[in-house]
Amino acid sequence: MGRDGDHVMSDRNSRVAVITGASSGIGAATARALARDGYRVALLARRADRIHALAAEIGNGAIAIEADVTDRDSLLGAAERVQKELGGADILVNNAGVMLLGPFTAEQREEQRQMVEVNLLGAMTATDTSCQSRRAMKSAPQSILTLNRPRITSLNLTATWYEVFLDQLRDGGGDLVNLSSVAGRTARPGNAAYAATKWGINGWSEALRQELQPGIRVIVIEPGAVATELPEHITHDQTKQAAEKMYESTAIPAQDIAEIIAFAVSRAKRTTINEILVRPTGQAG
Hints:
Elements: E1 3-4, E2 7-8, E3 16-20, H1 25-36, E4 40-45, H2 48-58, E5 63-66, H3 72-86, E6 91-94, H4 109-133, H5 136-139, H6 142-145, H7 149-154, H8 158-172, E7 174-179, H9 192-212, E8 216-223, E9 226-227, H10 237-250, E10 252-253, H11 254-265, E11 275-278
Helix pairs in contact: 1-11, 3-4, 4-8, 4-9
């Protein structure tokens, strides 16, 4: 699966990276960076037009899959396509996220819930879905593979398939890259719910690191201000103005984070860079 003993194989054309939130920002930049390194990429996002254009730009067998990390069925369909068309995922980059900053008030309840569903539960769902669809198809008995999905669901095989996948991934090696944030280490007024989702990502990732080692490497990336669309979607006017002002003067390009991700997954299998905190040089907190 793209690894040979303690070394990452030089020919990465057989390795596949799945990236959520790939339509813009860090996701799109990571897709380009990994493609330049020879990976085949599967681009997952809700904005189909953008990821189709990006897949055409990248080439090298890149595929675009319209998917929403809050919709388990769409992720199941995406995982099936990755398995069928690319042979399964070797790297999963959980990048999809929203940053709807604002005071912790009833008026922001919808934004708070959306951040939990996308940033935290979305990453968990994408990881679990990939687990069910990737290696189990190669190792499950033919009698199971011939069952249709409703029968599989009724037989409650989810837990079994998850265990089979983990066993196979440990044998072949794999990388789980979770995008957290500086807000996963610090919290301040106006980012209570956002920080909660990123602290959650950090805690979940650390638990997985211990559960899945040594077969699966878990890598957490904690960016500071990055020039993406995130501030544009803030609905609280005063918070949005402050965030945009800070980003305009401080933010670094998404390519900088993408290059760090590409570096982390290219390390020898014996080495894992578990946590990377990246701030713009001029960012104070």
